[in-house]
Amino acid sequence: MPRFLTAGESHGRGLVALIESFPAGIDISIDGINEQMRRRQLGFGRGQRMKIESDKVIIQSGVRHGKTLGSPIAMLIENKDWANWQKIMHPQKPIPTKLTPMQYRRAYDTTTPRPGHADLSGAFKYDTHDLRNVLERASARETAARVACGAVARQLLDQFNIEIASHVISIGKAKLTRKKTTIQEILDMADDSPVRCIDKNTESKMIAEIKNAAKKKDTLGGIFEVRIAGLPIGLGNNAQWYQRLDGLLAGAIMSIQSVKGVEIGDAFAAAQKFGSVVHDSIYYDSRRADQAKYYRKTNTAGGIEGGMTNGADIIIRAACKPISTLMQPLESVDVKTKQAANAMVERSDICVVPAAGVVGEAMAAMVIANAFLDKFGGDSKNEVMSNYMSYMGRVF
Asked: CB 355: neighbour CB atoms within 10 A?
């Protein structure tokens, strides 16, 4: 199965995305990858960094004439802001003695950890008082490389008509009240909204929430939903805990910076109901063209039962905490002097929930691509396609 890796610091020379064990012969569009990079930078409430960076991927290896070779795929995303940070972040040269006030702050004012961030835990783990050694990799800037990997995974899934989309269902107290949403509605409408919400009335309320947070020099979280359609029955496995698809998806989504909770289907609402009204009854109709003629009228399970896909759309929701960098910082302690101090302030966003949904799509794409190739694997597109068609013929 493929392995997706990223490297690079937030203000380093650039980010690297590496994909191993990817089948040969998969059509790869650089424009398609860069479109996903563009989508990640969308969203009302983003910070100044989005005005500096206009992320484009440079494919370094593993693709020739628009098709994968089967060898490792390496992609580079250059950090445009590197020119302003190389004195602080250079891999070899020490920090020079003469610095501008801004450079000095970036280099040395990094000893008061932010509540909610990786700063203090990382300082203990890596035995350092210089929190920049921790925060640079912990930064959500790293998700640009994840989106690049996810974009490649999506282009594999595209070959099998598997669609992935996301939308925002709440920011602060503003919440989408619509219960039923199709993946086509999300694909058609989400990216046209500055907060990636498919309802205009709720969109206005979300924007008002973000503006209010900005006025207070505060931050806001929310909930996004990822939906995956077109999956065959039987991806994932019930045999071992680490093979269960719901666990793999939950772990991948939870790994996104700021995400603190994940549910599959109507998990949290279902916890308050009887089983008789929660579980999705099964029906059979020989006239249907669907997989094995079995179908459900509801999808409370979110497309996964027993750790395996059941043919319905996978529905994942993730709760994002507010960003931990505040323009009016919380109380903290200087890790060098041990004196009380305000937490440090790094350039940041007010709300990242719209962008987090795009990152969620990428993480889901990587997990689904792995599960897909675990089931139908091969060294080339033709081999994977042959295995897939054989299985689907038996299912139908």
From this structure: 26
Count CB neighbours of 290 within 10 A: 12
Closest to 171 (Cα-Cα) out of 316, 43, 329: 43
- Across the beta sheet with 314-320, the strand order is 174-175, 163-171, 222-229, 314-320, 259-264
Tokens of 389: 């068609």
Per-residue pLDDT of the chain (396 residues; tens, 9 = 90+): 899 999 999 999 999 999 999 999 999 999 999 999 999 998 887 665 555 668 999 999 999 999 999 999 999 999 999 999 999 999 999 999 889 988 998 889 899 999 999 999 999 999 999 999 999 999 999 999 999 999 999 999 999 999 999 999 999 999 999 878 899 999 999 999 999 999 999 999 999 999 999 999 999 999 999 999 999 999 999 999 999 999 999 999 999 999 999 999 999 999 999 999 999 999 999 888 766 688 899 999 999 999 999 999 999 999 999 999 999 999 999 999 999 999 999 878 999 999 999 999 999 999 999 999 999 989 999 999 999 999 998 887
Question: Rounded CA gap, 258 and 136, in Å?
Answer: 15
120 close to 127: Cβ distance less than 8 angstroms: no
Paired tokens of 154: 């999506």
Cβ contacts of residue 252 below 8 Å, gap of 6+? 363, 364, 366, 367
The β-bridge partners of 76 are 16, 58
Q: Report the greatest alpha carbon distance in the chain.
A: 78
